[in-house]
Amino acid sequence: MSPRIATVFGATGLQGSAVVHALLKDGTFTPRAVTRDVNSTSALSLAQLGAEVVAADFGDKEALKNAVAGAEVVFLVTIPTFIASFPESDQGKNVIDASKEAGVRFMVFSTLPGISDLSKGKYTNAAHGDDKATAQKYLEASGLPSASISTGIFLENLLNKEIIGFSFDKTDDGYVFRTSTHPHSSAVHTWIGHDMGPAVTALFTQYVTRSSEILGQTFVLGSARATFEDFVVRLSKGLGRPVHIQYEKRLGIPAIDDMFDCLVEFPWYAGMSVPDPRLEKLGVKMGTIEEFARSVLKSHVDE
Ligand SMILES: NC(=O)c1ccc[n+]([C@@H]2O[C@H](COP(=O)([O-])OP(=O)(O)OC[C@H]3O[C@@H](n4cnc5c(N)ncnc54)[C@H](OP(=O)(O)O)[C@@H]3O)[C@@H](O)[C@H]2O)c1
């Protein structure tokens, strides 16, 4: 029997690599990892683990066709225009068109709320949210069976010095969390490394048998909804030492400033429980912020 193929975009990145690892562990699908450089260290290590690795850029329609040819399912994460140098909504459109043409049966799209719509036109600069929402609408109108996973703010931001708006450091009496979000704003906190892989695997392996619970749904991936003040309390419990929160000035980057302003006035996923009980019913057990602090953050920051 020929293998069931799952094409994974962004496979060398945080979300995609979590999906590739979870698919390899589960064994139902053979992951086909998409990268622009099949010879990069991350691409080579995915190949070594057993993934098929193929080259494609979101702007290269022919390469995208090859990336999804023969795939049963596709995981798509798109990249903000200012990073990928190619419009984010068109990245989505190109992959969705290629997947539909290739006869892909099911797609999972990693999305975000459209900040312009959510804020009723008040915050219009957060293109990374708006473009994902545009691509999601395009997917839902395309006729390709799909589900979307909407994320919160990644816990892994605390591990990555290149991410703007958040930092986490050791101090003499504990730790300090610095952020350009605003006091008392609440967010969904998402542990990608723990939860994205199992969530996508659960959808891929059950989209036929539990189609009524999956197709057309937008799931919220998150450990908890919490203010940043509560967030540091939970981190502190996991780390066993105090965590101080320090609010920083605005970044002067309209896309991110608008997103953080929006969080104060227009909560994301209002009225929805986090963790999402629909994902839990499908067998996904979300990690907690305390567990992230204890098992990942502590060794990273204490090094
Ligand atoms: N940080 C947060 O708190 C947060 C919260 C919600 C949503 N997000 C969203 O998460 C997304 C980023 O996901 P991530 O953190 O998993 O990514 P990441 O770790 O930054 O990795 C980016 C991935 O995209 C691939 N890529 C970049 N440009 C490409 C192109 N032109 N064509 C094809 N592939 C390309 C890269 O592959 P190669 O380099 O191997 O080609 C890499 O695998 C963004 O859209 C962001 O808006 C972030």
UniProtKB/TrEMBL annotation:
The superkingdom listed in its UniProt entry is: Eukaryota
Offer a single GO CC term for the protein: nucleus
The record places domain NmrA-like at 7-246
Which Pfam family, an example, fits this chain?
A: NmrA
UniProt keyword annotations, A-Z:
NADP
Do you know which InterPro entries this protein is assigned to?
NAD(P)-bd_dom_sf, NmrA-like, NmrA-like_oxidored
Q: Which family does it belong to?
A: Belongs to the NmrA-type oxidoreductase family.
This protein's name: NmrA-like domain-containing protein
